[in-house]
Amino acid sequence: MKISEIEEKMIDGEFSEEIFEQFVKALSRVPKTLRMQHCYTTAYSMREKDPENALRLINYALETFEGTALDIKRSLYNLGGIYEFTGDYKNANISYKKSLDAVPENTRESHTPSIAMDILRTELHCCNFCYSDYINELYNALLKADEFTASFRRFIFYRSVTEIIIAKKNEDTKLHKTAFDNAMKALDGSKKTGMDMLLLRHKFEDEAGATKEALEFLRNNGI
């Protein structure tokens, strides 16, 4: 059986020890440079129907193969995504941080913005969200991210939530109010900005991605 056929079965929820053995055997016929990629892409596609085995598959790849720094980063990032999908925000946060640490120092700056929001979002879930130098570094990286994405409202929302704790740290009442107002605007789907309208023309319908933890944070940190 071709590896693509086995992957389709796994993604469809037909995972079994026999299927896994077939997958491992098929992987041995794949070029070494692609083995980890097969694991982390297949695992991420499995997250909805079989998250437990999706986690197993990525951990198998990390323990078995010597991938490139980019392969390790993507594996850890997808691991975080699967954990977050299951509601395990603590391990999601840890995995996202590890994925950033896996990036070589000379390319760290270009990768940080794309991971910063994921770390900030899960940080908000799994602890009392408060100021730290690390959070401030992530925020500065987030500002360098390209706002023209399908997650525009989510970007604005979590950027604003982070600005609130920075404003409180610096006792900046003006920034605190602006950040809080921007967070609330991002939550109000009836208010369309110019960027929203542009994204809609590209068939993107974005939401802020607020959660009960994020809303509780706003309730406790409003002005």
Describe the protein's topology:
Blueprint: H1 3-11, H2 17-27, H3 32-46, H4 51-64, H5 69-86, H6 89-101, H7 108-126, H8 133-142, H9 152-170, H10 173-187, H11 194-201, H12 212-221
Q: How would you describe the overall organization of this protein?
A:
The longest helix is centred in the middle third of the chain and has 19 residues, at 108-126. With 223 residues, the protein is an all-alpha fold. The protein starts with a helix and ends with a helix. α8 runs antiparallel to α9 and α9 (152-170) runs antiparallel to α10 (173-187). It is 72% helix and 0% strand. It has two domains: 1-103, Serine Threonine Protein Phosphatase 5, Tetratricopeptide repeat; 113-223, no CATH class.
Tell me briefly what this model is.
This protein has helices at 3-11, 17-27, 32-46, 51-64, 69-86, 89-101, 108-126, 133-142, 152-170, 173-187, 194-201, 212-221. By secondary structure, the chain is mainly α.
Strand content: under 5%
Q: Count of DSSP E strands?
A: 0
Q: Sheet with the most strands?
A: none
Using the CA coordinates, give the radius of gyration: 20 Å
Could you say how many structural domains there are in total?
A: 2
Low-confidence spans = none
Query: Would you tell me the structural class of the helices and strands?
Result: mainly alpha
Count of runs of 4 or more consecutive helical residues: 12
Note the overall shape. elongated
What's the end-to-end separation, in Å? 61 Å
Helix content: over 70%
Q: What pattern of helices and strands is seen along the backbone?
A: HHHHHHHHHHHH
Mean pLDDT: 82
